[in-house]
Amino acid sequence: MASSSAPQVITCKAAVAWGAGEELVMEEVEVSPPQRLEIRIKVVSTSICSRDLNARKYQAIFPRIFGHEASGIIESVGQGVTEFNEGDHVLTVFIGECMSCRTCKSGKSSICQVLGLEKKGLMHNDQKTRFAVKGEPVYHFCAISSFSEYTVVHSGCAVKISPHVPLEKLCLLSCGVAAGLGAAWNVADVSKGSTVVIFGLGTVGLSVAQGAKLRGASRIIGVDKNPRKCVNAKVFGITEVIDPNLYKERPIAQVIRHITDGGADFCFDCVGDTDIITTALESCCDGWGVTVALGVPKAKPKISAHYSLFLRGRTLKGSIFGGWKPKSDIPSLVEKYMNKEIQIDDYITHNLPFDDINKAFNLMAEGKCLRCVIHMPR
Question: Which superkingdom does the taxonomy of this entry point to (predicted)?
Answer without folding.
Answer: Eukaryota
